[in-house]
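Bug #77: duplicate submission created two jobs. Keeping one. Sequence:
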Amino acid sequence: MADCQVCGNEIYGDSLSCRFCGSELSKDLLSGAQGFIHKTVNLEQGRPVVEVALQKLNDAIEDAVTQNISVLTLIHGYGSSGKGGLIRLECRKILGYMKSKGTIRDYIAGEEFSRKSGFVKFHLQRYPALAKNKNLNKGNRGVTLVIL
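Kept job's structure:
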């Protein structure tokens, strides 16, 4: 018995695919699988202009893909005006584009990251450790989770 490297669920016997996320796995991955990797990136650190924050977003996603990270939590803030900042809005536009192009699998807005959402339940089943995420059920508009 081992854990899936993609979603962290248990894989039984000699199976080469995860029954939860459907990932195809090789036997050598099964022997050393430790679960999925989650990373947090603070895009608003240093109060950058939008263009700098968006470049940091692109770099973080490229790095995450090369490092086999499964989930990124992006901290982009909500904006000092209380109406939603430009970094937040532009990040989500880019993430929508990346999803349509297949660069990322999906993303979850922090305000939608709730156990009540069927969409979120699907991702919690795929990545059970996300149930321990401090942003779950908080309605945090200043974060977005990216599923790679």
